[in-house]
Amino acid sequence: MTIKASSTASFQVERVARSESLALTVASQLEAMITQSKILLGEKLPTENALCDMFGVSRTVIREAITQLKSLGLVETRRGVGTTVVRNQPAETYYAYTINPTAVEDILHILELRITFETRAAELAALRRDDQDIQTLEETLLAFDAALEKGEMARKEDYQFHYAIAKASKNPFFKQFYEQFNKNIIPRAKIVNSNLDPAAAEVYLARIREEHHEILQAIRSGNAEAARKAMHQHLYRAYHLYEKYRSTSRFD
Question: Domain HTH gntR-type, which positions (predicted)?
């Protein structure tokens, strides 16, 4: 089979802002081009150097983005050939970008997965974190507080806290796990906004804030067992909260 190279002249991309998750943003743009048939089946992606120039990012970022496309089953890389488009829709088993954040069943399934993964990530973060990791975690908590003061649900800030723990574990697969799901892994916003009065929402979010601080304290002190327990308690409480919502459509 002859594999065509996709012309860089046909690529209309947005250079990536430094405040964004670089690899995730690049992967999202490339995924959109593939699913919209702007890059056709059998065509090769431009070279790493060409993609670096187009997006204004490093080769490391491009490689991480390609890895994410591989995880979706969209491309494959072969030595001496390059990266070729092999599907124009993500494989069914990779549904992270299509999760409905208001579907309670999806929320419960995600939380079951998170309880397994994130308790271990918290343990490893307590053992492997460095000063920069602690600073990042502290900054995410300050951002969480600022969002609450503005009356927001702090969904993005919640994600950033847990993502920082995944990075602090120093296990790249925990980090990739979070990047694939993006903020849909914190899927409370619409349910909470539509079903809690302001006073109840304030209590709900204050509890999350308190639990985040407990997790951070355990990680900061290097206590892996305490970090595991704090994370498990945090996620398990959320699981039961949404499990009750499934049957009663109420948060208490």
Answer: 20-88
Domains of the chain in start order, with CATH, are 4-85 (1.10.10.10), 99-248 (1.20.120.530)
For 84, list phi and psi in degrees, rounded to 5: -115, 140
Structure confidence by residue, pLDDT tens digits, 50-102: 999 999 999 998 988 888 788 677 889 888 889 999 988 765 433 333 334 45
A 10 A CB-CB count for 215 gives 27
pLDDT in tens, 110-157: 888 999 999 999 999 999 999 999 999 999 999 999 999 998 889 889
* Cβ within 8 Å of residue 192, ≥6 positions away: 153, 201, 204, 251
